[in-house]
Amino acid sequence: MRPLEVGVVGCGVAGQAAAILLSRQGHRVTVFERFAEPRPVGAGLLLQPTGLAVLDALGLGDGARAKGATVHGLQARTAGGRAVLDLDYADLHPDAHGLGIRRSDLFDLLHGALKASRATLVSGLEIASVEGQVLVDEGGRKHGPFDLVIAADGTNSRLRGSLLPSKQVTLYRWGCLWATVPDDGLGFASSGLLQQRVRGTREMMGLLPVAPGVLTLYWSLPVTALNAKKALDLDDFRRRATALWPEAAPIVARAAAGAFTRATYRHVALSRWNKGGVLLIGDAGHGTSPQLGQGANLGLVDAWVLADALAEGPDLLSAVMNWERRREATLFYYQRVSHLLTPFFQSRSAVLGGLRDLAMGPLGRLPPVRRLMTTTLAGTRRGWWSNVPLDAAGRYPLPRGGRA
Asked: What is the pLDDT of residue 166?
């Protein structure tokens, strides 16, 4: 395939990864970012074997591991100590793991690679719509035309609304507060575990190791309490979080004394991800709740599969359709499972919380269910009945010429 003119809208995880990969293939890539100085949004995230495989392919995996914290499993318990989830990556392979990392550290790694690539970055310019293969900014100026437009402008994507006015996008009624805090020797950061405590479906707190001695804390709240114009009730947070998880009281106190990021989430359900030569990737195309911790990982694999599909050719339209064919089973699975699980952890339903507490722990000890849960956590599912096994080294084999 001849070198393409590619316009990428959005300088987040998916957009930067796609720009790096396609520019390395020889395509002429221009990235448009609405902020004058591109920056990450959020506190921390969990990279799964899928996302780590893409970072390794980009030459950024070792840098990520040096900055982040290895996560060996996930534990979720009720306030009374009952196990809700207890998953271990070692069930898939002795060397398998996730990696907790600060969003700023992941952003810096990707942004450094982007600036070192041949891609052009245009910042401080918000793209409002797309007309054919031409991008139109807020001032009405036109950019392009491009052979391929990649909409990677996040869960609040303006291009998605311009392209697919009949889109199905639902704002979840619950979001989270996020803060990054030092562990100061309490042992949470060195545990190798993403740990959660829940009480019913109205209270949820998590601690994710994201660097040596550093944690990201998240606390569930209704979106009405997350309004940016409304002051946070930190005394209420401190009281309730400490009552939910007394052992983490020093972490709660440090978080309450610092700065929080407020995050809301959307369920983005599209029947297709492209319109001609325009393709939606990452959260712009398939945003989910954070219950499965897959957002950044899905976006990274989106970028990898797109580059692979373009390398296969034989033409742009065939490559885009090939990308959809190879991604649809995985994307539909994670969208549906995330949407299904969310009200069991974040809602006002006491019934769903009770069912979760009674059933999820025992079910998770049944070998077939446990494997389904663990492969879902690792990001390797490609549907209810299919999974991509890790390789002999315990790493995710990036797809080449097959489904992903």
From this structure: 61
At 403, is the pLDDT very low, low, confident or very high (cuts 50, 70, 90)?
A: very low
Residue 160 inside a domain? The answer is yes
The single residue listed with the structure tokens 């599209």 is: 270
pTM for the whole structure: 0.95
Q: Of 56-65, 159-168, 235-244, 386-395, which gets the smallest average pLDDT?
A: 159-168
Q: For the chain, what is the HEC assignment?
A: CCCCEEEEECCCHHHHHHHHHHHHCCCEEEEEECCCCCCCCCCEEEECHHHHHHHHHCCCHHHHHHHCEEECEEEEEECCCCEEEEEEHHHCCCCCCEEEEEHHHHHHHHHHHHHHCCCEEEECCCEEEEECCEEEECCCCEECCCCEEEECCCCCCHHHHHHCCCCEEEECCEEEEEEEEECCCCCCCCCCEEEEEEECCCEEEEEEEEECCEEEEEEEEEHHHHCCCCCCCHHHHHHHHHHHCHHHHHHHHHHHCCCCEEECCEEEECCCCEECCEEECCHHHHCCCHHHCCHHHHHHHHHHHHHHHHHHCCCHHHHHHHHHHHHHHHHHHHHHHHHHHHHHHCCCCHHHHHHHHHHHHHHCCCHHHHHHHHHHHHCCECCCCCECCCCCCCCCCCCCCCCC
The CATH number assigned to the domain holding 158 equals 3.50.50.60
58 located within any domain: yes
Q: Are the C-beta atoms of 68 and 358 separated by less than 8 Å?
A: no
Q: What is the pLDDT of residues 153-182, one digit of tens each?
A: 999 898 988 887 666 788 999 999 999 999
**Residue 317: which domain range?**
5-69+96-171+266-346
Q: What is the pLDDT of residues 81-140, one digit of tens each?
A: 999 999 999 999 999 999 999 999 999 999 999 999 999 999 999 999 999 899 999 999
Is the residue at 314 inside a domain?
A: yes
Query: Whole-angstrom Cα distance, residue 330 to residue 83?
Result: 28
The answer as to whether 64 is a domain residue is yes
- The torsion angles phi and psi of 321, rounded to 5 degrees, stand at -65, -35
As for how many domains the chain has, the answer is 1
Res 259: pLDDT: 84
